Amino acid sequence: MTSRPLLRSRDLSLFIVVASVLALGACSDGKPAAPPAMGPLPVTVLEVQPQKIPTSIEVMAQTEGARETEVRARVGGILVKRLYQEGETVKAGQALFQIDHSSYEIALSEARAKAEQASRETKRLKGLIESKAISQKEYDDASSNNAIAQAALRQAELNLAWTTVTAPVAGTTGRAAKSEGNLVTVGGDSLLTSIYQLNPMWVRFSLGESDLAKFPNGRVSAKDVSGVKLVQANGAIYGKPGKLNFLASNIDTTLGTQALRAEFANPDSQLLPGQFVRIRLLTGERDGVFLVPQSAVVQTEQGAMVMLADADNKVAPRPVQAGEWLGRDWVILGGLKAGDKVIVDNLMKLRPGAPVAPHPPGAPVAPPPAPAPAPAKQG
Q1: pTM of the full structure
Q2: In a domain, 370, yes or no
Q3: Is it the case that residue 206 has pLDDT exceeding 70?
């Protein structure tokens, strides 16, 4: 008695669902709704022209002071005081360390007394030798003893002076190798600090076999390099040009490299010893090449490629021959011609043959046209 109304309710619900589906199918004429049409993708294009650029070789390098001088103790003793601030610029002759000098003062007093005694004895015997009262040997021995005593006095004066360790050259000081209270000995343990001359700054680097092959006879000479530039760690070009001041006359047989060194003016101490930088050697000029932003060059398994906007404003892939970097650009040696419009943005959204709306760099971008609304259909 209670099951029949439930069956009728279920049949009614099924009828409503089937009727709704049939009504929707009738309204769409049996065809799925098409997605809204999209307009051309706005892209920035660069119209390239052939250029003349300097040819260069860029390699890793490291800076070093033009003069790196070790400051060493010349006498031993207890280090009682450091007289400079680590890292400051000092002048030649400026006092840097003080070694305990009490024992050297005593030694100087003793040497002075002996020297005075030997000098008096020589003067006394000089009068006697003139009167033939003593032998020539006695006078010669006294003169020799006097010379030895005077030399010992001079050495004692130097030892006392050397207890004050001074800067041998002007420059920027390094970290102190010993602290107050340490025992300083003469020899391998005598290093106290180092002084670096920062102006000019030297930069050491080497050229490998692949770079050397670009030069006549497989090695660099001064006439092959027209200029030297320094590229800092942030990619900026150092403001002052450099020059080569050393070229090795041989090739390292172990590494197959030729060692070179460049010199840069550094009046403001912008460069510091030990920095890793890049050296760019200008080796000539190359004509008829194109510069394309690095972001516009796509690396594929077949090689480098750029995307062009063709005459119909459609995407046209173009294989190119890429050379070296020049600043933020790729040097393109082949594959482009004057007037080609290289697409430089939205590369991930591009598809060959897709329509685009190109505009030059910096131009305002017009919004893409809104898709036309689908016409309503009567059910």
Answers
A1: 0.57
A2: no
A3: yes
